[in-house]
Design a protein that fits this description.
By secondary structure, the protein is α/β, with parallel strands linked by helices. It folds into 2 domains: 125 residues, Rossmann fold (3-Layer(aba) Sandwich), CATH 3.40.50.1000; 97 residues, Hypothetical Protein, Haloacid Dehalogenase-like Hydrolase, Chain: A, domain 2 (2-Layer Sandwich), CATH 3.30.1240. The protein has 9 helices and 11 strands. The strands form 2 sheets. A 7-stranded mixed beta sheet has the order 5-4-3-2-1-10-11. The chain is globular and about 55 Å long. It is an enzyme of class 5 (isomerase). It catalyses: alpha-D-mannose 1-phosphate = D-mannose 6-phosphate.
Length: 244
């Protein structure tokens, strides 16, 4: 199908959150590449996406957009990069980070671990529990957060405190949320896809406030909400493979 690309979120769409993709899924994506162009867009940095999809990720897919496309690869070669540090400047960045760390220090939640802020090329990833938690602790925090809205409330505080900065906050995964300049959500990657007449996007967090929402709602994409990696395969099979 010339001019058609399927663009996939990673966590919850191709893999269980922060886990490795199944062999079945990896094989399926390679079969899909025989029919259409396949791209991946995730909020994580390239090293984390590669942990989930394989060490050769940038060569296994036609397009790989890490950090929402702020670091972009096509056919194994980097075609774009953008820096949060250059955009905000050190003073504003330091003010924001200091406030976040103070907020988390005062936060009363069942457990805390380490790495509460992860500095990436084009965004900050903020985790109230800390990214060093175990998978069991990660699962427990996700359930706790669904009841107590720890991340949602923290985002609301940051929006008010730093309303003078053009920042977007996007809750994704199980334990964290991303912070990046307005317009640097997953729609950022679409600038690299002007040659395609149809861009199908598949993601699980397509609701408002989820990190798939903006690209799902974009006029440039045909959005598909999925509930699991298995659901992703089923929808793609119906759309792209049963018409062969």
């Amino acid at each position: 199908m010339a001019g058609v690309i399927a663009l996939f979120d990673v966590d919850g769409t191709l893999t269980p959150p922060r886990k490795v993709a199944s062999v079945e899924m990896l094989d399926f994506l390679q079969e899909l590449r025989k029919v259409i162009t396949v791209g991946v867009v995730g909020g994580s940095d390239l090293s984390k996406i590669s942990e989930q999809l394989g060490k050769n990720t940038i060569n296994d897919y036609d397009y790989v957009f890490s950090e929402n496309g702020l670091v972009a690869h096509k056919g194994g070669s980097q075609i774009g990069s953008q820096s949060l540090k250059s955009f905000l400047g050190e003073d504003q960045l330091k003010e924001f980070i200091n406030f976040v760390l103070h907020y988390i220090a005062d936060l009363d939640i069942p457990i805390k671990r380490g790495t509460f802020i992860e500095f990436r090329t084009g965004m900050l990833n903020v985790s109230p529990i800390g990214r060093n938690c175990s998978q069991e602790e990660r699962d427990a925090f996700e359930q706790y957060d669904k009841i107590h809205n720890i991340r949602r409330d923290m985002v609301n505080v940051l929006k008010e405190k730093f309303s003078h900065l053009p920042l977007t906050y996007s809750i994704g995964g199980q334990i964290s949320f991303d912070v990046f300049p307005r317009g640097w959500d997953k729609t950022y990657c679409l600038q690299f896809l002007d040659d395609f007449k149809e861009i199908h996007f598949f993601g699980d967090k397509t609701f408002k406030g989820g990190n798939d929402h903006e690209i799902f709602e974009s006029e440039r994409t045909i959005g598909h909400t999925v509930t699991s990696p298995g659901d992703t395969r089923e929808q793609c099979t119906r759309l792209f493979l049963t018409t062969m």
